[in-house]
């Protein structure tokens, strides 16, 4: 069993363990240092109304097509069951087995990116996320992966620790003194990620985390299927990118524990995300839609792409 | 008073080792003019067109990633027929220079960024950034870096020739602006990391200070690695320990500088400071606290650079700083000048003594101020600073910075012919805080006397 766990990625990779140890250590320090502040923050009640689900879940009908494979990147993994009825129904609804794989994966990407609102909640399964209509970036990636796997498209996680642009720092970190101190102590945000789908011999990145409205509110281009968030609104800590088939064991519990430390801080972050979403929505309405926004955004500064060359470098 | 031609000739003699025997048009445009801030427009434009066109063609032909980037933008060297076509040259955002991969691919990234061929460089399995840079540098390159608040460095692969040009340019720029005050007999204090013990660009490029004056003391003698800076910028335990040690060191530095001032004041020597303003600010704060004042007058000069953050929560204006220098050290405000440059470029904007506007060299360097669409804004309007650098031979020096500036066609105060930038340069919203002084300030944990102390 241990071998299977290891192979599936249930045992966290070394980098992740290091990140969690460092994160927990720094968090403990911040908590000890700010014991009274923490007590006050915990007692504080922050009004929070979760966003409403934006869609109806399609009905499952027996006999709906689904790929049930035990192959790596296609099989169910922790918090990501592609065989669940709700997932199968949605996959079929989105055009699995009818559309070309790229087209289908792109539509899945659009669905998850646009319809699932980002909110910080403890890690749970894809069906819960789908029923709720909101979840963290990790929830959104899991849903993207499950929908891809259900249609026979291999998919995996790309996780990393990151630093973010100012506007996102203000939304997630600057809202709460404890959060800020924690982030500043670490020098980066502990975990974020994207999904990756394997199509035509290539892994294609899917930045499903931010809704277009939030990207508009931050003044950055709306990421399409295949666009990376790294270099756009985030920088990965060098050497910290982990590509895994599954989320590791213990992540659910850990996320629950972390969020119970200061529920008020989490509520503040979530409220800020909703405000940002509303702001971006209004901006899009005012400027005449996403196309116009992208036209303006694409006029900005693009980073050149670079195909690495070895030249005369010799690796030992 | 010494003639300007003679003055610059004397400087050129001191800088001979930095002069390329077979100058490119960019290098010629740096060496030849007597006063690089006062070349008649027609002549300056001729120099500039040749320099930039040559550099563009060179990178287009010898740098694969820039060649592809030009193809994407549908531009070839033949499209550049006059200065009016310079806006067609594709600009690389400064962020690009910090979008490097981790591990051994970092070495390939540097190699790809580099224009032209490289000598053999052997990279070990466990080499970190510092090891890789040092191996490139041992092979004859001068890879240097600067860092921002995210802790991610900006790496620039200069070859020796480009680095020599950068050193020549910074010396000529500063010395030209303080005409006729420079002389070899000055004693200097470098308020930067030791040029020969660091790969931090701002420190390294000041190595030329040792060539143009007879005696130089360095504030930060210890070796400053990329890793150390990164660790010191974090607020975790390790970062705090490093900064605590640095803080102690900084107090010693301040005492050493004060003793040095006393010594030269007594002897009536000429002195100069070059480097990060915050360090001199703390020296002056201590002197003021102790009621100790000097009167160096024209026997002193100060050239600052790298940003004006003094404490975490305090940014000083260049004007306040000059007044303090005059009040505490007795050095007149016209000999207290700020210099603006960046790790990605080899052009140096120096304040004029008369109005303290930052003058942009215009023989080998073409400055642009652009809006968020990449279009040039009118003179006097705020925008992002961008430039085309005719001295960058080893990487495409056509860059969009993260700095917000206003440019004017002429200096509102002095007679010099170059365009000018307003003295206060700020970072564009969304860009991280940067600047060599900010980098050093963070490492040295400079909130020694501030309210956060």
Question: Overview of this structure, please?
Answer:
The complex is a heterodimer of chains A (316) and B (453). With 316 residues, chain A is of the alpha+beta class. Chain A contains 13 helices and 8 strands. In chain A, strands 3, 4, 5, 6 and 7 form a 5-stranded antiparallel sheet that branches. A two-stranded parallel sheet of chain A has the order 1-2. In chain A, helix 6 crosses helix 7. The radius of gyration of chain A is 20 Å and the shape is globular. Chain B is built from 14 helices and 18 strands. In chain B, 36% of the residues lie in helices and 19% in strands. The radius of gyration of chain B is 21 Å and the shape is globular. In chain B, the strands form 3 sheets. In chain B, strands 1, 5, 6, 7, 8, 11, 12, 13, 14, 15, 16, 17 and 18 form a 13-stranded mixed sheet that branches. In chain B, strands 3-4 form a two-stranded antiparallel sheet.
Highlighted features:
heterodimer, A: 316 residues, alpha+beta, five-stranded antiparallel beta sheet, 13 helices, 12% strand, B: alpha/beta, 13-stranded mixed beta sheet, two-stranded antiparallel sheet, 19% strand, globular
General form of chain A: globular
First-last Cα distance of chain A: 37 Å
Biggest beta sheet attributes of chain A: 5 strands, antiparallel
Average of pLDDT of chain A: 86
Task: Tell me the number of strands of chain B.
Answer: 18
Proportion of residues in extended strands of chain B = 15-25%
The poorly predicted ranges of chain A are none
What oligomeric arrangement do these chains adopt? heterodimer
Taking all Cα atoms into account, the compactness measure Rg of chain A is: 20 Å
CA-based shape of chain B: globular
How can the largest sheet of chain B be summarized?
Answer: 13 strands, mixed
What structural category arises from helix and sheet content of chain B?
Answer: alpha/beta
**Mean pLDDT over the residues of chain B:** 87
Strand content of chain A: 5-15%
Number of strands of chain A: 8
Instruction: Give the N-to-C terminal Cα separation of chain B.
Output: 48 Å
In total, the number of domains of chain A comes to 1
